[in-house]
Amino acid sequence: MQNRTVYFDNNATTPLHPEVKKTLQEGLEIFGNPSSMHQFGREAREKVEDAREKVASFLGAHAEEILFVGSGSEANNTVLSLLHCDSTTCACSLSGRRDLVTTVIEHPCVLNTARHLGRKNHGVHYLSVDRDGRIDLDDLRRAVTDKVGMVSVMMANNEIGTVQDIKGAARIAHEAGALFHTDAVQAVGKIPVDVRDLDVDFLTLSGHKIYGPKGIGALYVKKGAPYCPLILGGHQEFGRRAGTENSLGIFGLGKAIEMRALEMADEEDRILGLKQTLRDGIERAIPDVLFMGHPVHCLPGTLNVSFAGAEGEAILLYLDLAGIAVSTGSACASGSLDPSHVIMATGVPVENAHGSIRISLGRENTLDDVTYMLEKLPPIIGRIREMSTAYRRR
Amino acid sequence: MAAKWTYSDKVKDHFMNPRNILREGNEVDFHGIGKTGNVKCGDEMMVFIKVDPATQTIAECKWQTYGCASAIASTSMLSEMVIGMKLEEAYKISAKDILTALDGLPDNKVHCSVLGDKALRAAIDDYYRRNGMEDRITTQESKIVCECMQVTDHDIEHAVLEGARSFHELQEMTKIGTGCGECQEQAMAVMSGYIQKHFGL
Predict the structure, then answer these.
(1) Per DSSP, what are the bridge partners of residue B47?
(2) Of all helices (H) and strands (E), which one includes residue A299?
(3) CA-to-CA distance for A383 and A129, rounded, in angstroms?
(4) pLDDT tens for residues A159-189?
(5) Residues of B at the A interface (Cβ-Cβ below 8 Å)?
(6) How far apart are CA A43 and CA B181, in angstroms?
(7) A5/B1 CB distance under 8 A
(8) ipTM exceeding cut-off 0.85 for this assembly
(9) What range defines the domain where residue A275 resides?
(10) How many folded domains does chain A comprise?
(11) pTM score
């Protein structure tokens, strides 16, 4: 097959949907401040509220339960910060329950906020995960003491794709009198998410993971749930998130969600099929591979695999030279020199973390992309293993 | 796409076309074998040398590496540099020499080149040992403090002489404790010993 470029890193970010691109181009003309009363403001306001409506309806929420924020990280920070609001007059009072229960495989924006809470003398309990990356709901039940104000469990993991039983986890949190938050940045738009059915109090999503623009996210806050803004200032977003709205980002997010509502079911089926072909092909062509993530409860497009004796950054860069973009859990590519905390948490040997690559498929991927990958990957692994101290052909 | 590649052209060249890889099965033919790093830490290198006994020069240098692009390129570059070189000269090759030859590596990748020269010295030591020339081994007395990054007390001394005063600075220079991190306490004790010795602080 001819050389081509293949983007297999859709969990990192996604290309804009063509319809979103169109919306953004048109949106460039709408410059009014949505808070202004004149026609320029009203035009922007109308479109912002239209986007809010789309997001809400996609999640099964009411429009006033959706706040637009700058990123998934901001939404997660906002929710976890409710635990250390010490104002006695604040509506977010969690009746003295200051502790947090979360998991060891959360995104760094949750983990680092949790550590920050820990430094401020909040009790923080990290739930471990099994070999497939799932938490044990009995562990959760034991962890939610009467001091716990919030439970935060990510819906789908960005590295291995494992999907948690959020409905079950939320029920346990509520039975014990705690609030429940889920970071659904990787889940929304890929698997069905209904906030009423799941019965969560807070949910985080992000635009750029679902073919929308970067710099825009949304936070679902259940009506009546305690809340306190992280960013103080003007009255925007019902007084819950100050700062002039990123109206262009909001238009884009609204369109991206609208397109997911139309296309998700068919597309994710197709993507799952492509992943299965890819997985089977890898298994057939390359010995000594280990797949990570849950075999069933997994995002349709996420495939995490490690190759004995081959280091992840080397694999990534050889693939890059062949025009294929993936990511790796290797320490060598992390900047921090630590291997992926997610893969380490599943209890596989550290070599597997160093040697893991994440292939994340998206709506633009085709069977030709998969065929090309299956043509390029085996010789690359063979070549790396040939020069490796850590692989002996058996 | 027009974006610049991750590393220098030299690194790219050696990554794409690694020189002097040891194919399997002929390890016994070599006169000295050295190994450094380990797979758990993410980098492992082995260097195999053949020595011309008359001239004491390296006639052949082969290698195997488990590691990232810069680790592969560093070992490949090293193998080219030392062929034809006198043992005593090769013994003195430093990580800096490899870095310079590669037109540099990003700061967080410097430790990859650090491993290469250590594996080479270990191979030369092995040759000396096999040939009754133990007196020429100078790395012998050094003691490994950090297993993951193979940092010895000598490396710590060198870093102190180069200006390291805090554990953070020591880490920047040697990558010590960036694997499992268990050596931190011991490393700090060794470091303050050398600061005391050389600077009396």
Answers:
(1) B34, B63
(2) none
(3) 34
(4) 999 999 999 999 999 999 999 999 999 999 9
(5) 1, 6, 15-16, 18, 21, 23-24, 35, 39-40, 42-46, 63-72, 108-109, 111-112, 175, 178-179
(6) 57
(7) yes
(8) yes
(9) 6-15+264-387
(10) 2
(11) 0.89
